[in-house]
């Protein structure tokens, strides 16, 4: 299906099109792991998807180019196809899930594509794209299950080996599997000693389940903040390649993804979307056997909607212990709230908001409940504040 020469050819085609993104150290992500980031979030269009899409389009025949191209995407592949088609003077029609981030929809239009919004998720957009392809004779640019697309994504593997020859492990996000198939094939062909790990969201574990069951599995529903990898079913080609070349696939929760996004912003000054942060989340929360190893996490994209980013930061703060809400049951008499605030202040907690409730069936008739939202340092700090409140005789409900 795929030869290493194809990936080298893709690298030659992409040389003057795609950026050779930097690999940067990120030691604070996990002190027990020698972590580095391959910053594909800084790629043109904000995602690695440009590589596979552009290479596929470049290999079309003149007749296929005249008929135009069609694709389906959660957003990043759409932008890659749009830019690649426009750059080659080709018409492009992109089917996107109606729930795709507005920023990705507008960016796709901005690169010159016509957009068709389809109710549902990626798989629904895929079905609509196939329908329109048959109707109009477009050339279909598959987002992951195409040898040319996989070859384009595999150029990242070549770059990692060139930029960091001492690499011991590479951690890659998985949606449909095109990215990890290309990277794993290139890396294992040239350096079989390097471990390649895949990461999915626990809300969309289609590849993880398929590999576990040794057959392609279709998920009825997917739900994750990592919209770029919310795929119900892996590809035929990508399943076979992951089964052959990938060492292990793990999953991370939405809360872990949110914490990783926050860590990248604070520690590395890097903005990643949910799908782009899953590899970092897996290393950050010790989901993989990479302690002490030189490990490259592939930050695959940075096209996160600003409204989503705001909610993700809030979740990330809570997951990392930077934000916490205490609920305390009190006697409804003067000085009680002042006493609680004094304990929190002495422990170094910063109170953001206070809600005081007198009418609460769970409290005594002469009691009340207060809800205090705090800024805290970490989970240990939350524990210290809780202990201090309990030691002072307060009834902490949460």
Quick synopsis:
By secondary structure, this protein is an alpha/beta fold. 44% of the residues lie in helices and 19% in strands.
Account of the 3D structure:
The mean pLDDT is 92. The chain contains 15 helices and 14 strands. It is an alpha/beta fold and 398 residues long. The strands form three sheets. A six-stranded mixed β-sheet has the order 1-2-10-7-8-9, sandwiched between helices. The chain has a four-stranded parallel β-sheet with strand order 5-4-3-6, sandwiched between helices. The radius of gyration is 24 Å and the shape is elongated. The longest helix is centred in the middle third of the chain and has 17 residues, at 147-163.
């Amino acid at each position: 299906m795929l030869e290493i020469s194809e990936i080298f050819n893709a690298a030659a085609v992409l040389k003057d099109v795609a950026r050779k993104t930097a690999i940067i150290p990120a030691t604070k992500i996990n002190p027990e792991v020698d972590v580095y980031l391959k910053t594909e979030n800084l790629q043109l269009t904000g995602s690695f998807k440009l590589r596979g899409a552009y290479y596929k389009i470049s290999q079309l025949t003149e007749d296929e180019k005249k008929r135009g191209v069609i694709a389906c995407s959660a957003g990043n592949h759409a932008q890659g196809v749009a830019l690649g088609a426009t750059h080659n003077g080709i018409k492009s029609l992109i089917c996107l899930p109606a729930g795709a981030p507005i920023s990705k929809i507008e960016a796709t239009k901005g690169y010159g594509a016509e957009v068709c919004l389809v109710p549902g998720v990626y798989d629904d957009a895929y079905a609509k794209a196939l329908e329109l392809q048959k109707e109009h004779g477009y050339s279909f640019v598959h987002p992951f299950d195409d040898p040319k697309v996989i070859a384009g994504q595999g150029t990242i593997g070549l770059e990692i080996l060139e930029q960091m020859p001492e690499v011991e492990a590479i951690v890659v996000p998985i949606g449909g599997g095109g990215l990890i198939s290309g990277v794993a094939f290139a890396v294992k062909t040239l350096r079989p000693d390097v471990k390649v790990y895949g990461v999915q969201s626990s809300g969309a574990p289609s590849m993880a389940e398929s590999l576990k069951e040794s057959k392609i599995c279709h998920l009825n529903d997917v739900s994750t903040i990592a919209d770029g990898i919310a795929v119900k079913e892996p590809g035929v080609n990508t399943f076979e390649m992951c089964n052959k070349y990938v060492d292990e696939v793990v999953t991370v929760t939405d809360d872990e993804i949110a914490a990783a996004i926050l860590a990248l912003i604070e520690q590395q000054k890097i903005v990643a979307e949910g799908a782009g942060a899953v590899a970092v989340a897996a290393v950050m929360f010790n989901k993989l056997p990479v302690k002490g190893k030189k490990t490259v996490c592939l930050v695959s994209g940075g096209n996160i909607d600003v409204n989503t980013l705001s909610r993700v930061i809030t979740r990330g703060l809570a997951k990392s212990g930077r934000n916490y809400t205490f609920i305390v049951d009190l006697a409804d008499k003067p000085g009680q709230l002042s006493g609680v605030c004094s304990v929190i202040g002495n422990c170094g907690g910063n109170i953001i908001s206070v809600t005081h409730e007198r009418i609460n069936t769970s409290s005594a008739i002469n009691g009340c409940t207060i809800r205090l939202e705090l800024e805290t340092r970490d989970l240990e700090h939350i524990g210290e504040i809780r202990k201090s409140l309990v030691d002072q005789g307060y009834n902490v409900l949460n």
